[in-house]
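Example record

One chain of 85 residues, shown exactly as stored in the release files.
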Amino acid sequence: MIDVYKYAVKNKLTTASAIKHKEFKEFFKTIKIGIAVEIGTDKGMSAAYIAQFAKKVFTFDIIDREVKYKAWKDLGVENRIFYYF
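Predicted structure tokens for this chain:
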């Protein structure tokens, strides 16, 4: 599995993303998640990180940023993320 944070840094996708915070990353490692809901997708990095631990992530935003689709595919989580615009 690709490290989502390293991918985000390399591709300059960390702005407005919670994945740069240690507490965010550690939290998801400690719980079992079936379904997660995210409000505010932005570039999709938080959803990608959560999708590593959840069976499904439903994410919603009012702006459809195309960059997230490539990132989700590159990270191998595109089948677990359901985006609504």
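Notes: The radius of gyration is 11 Å.
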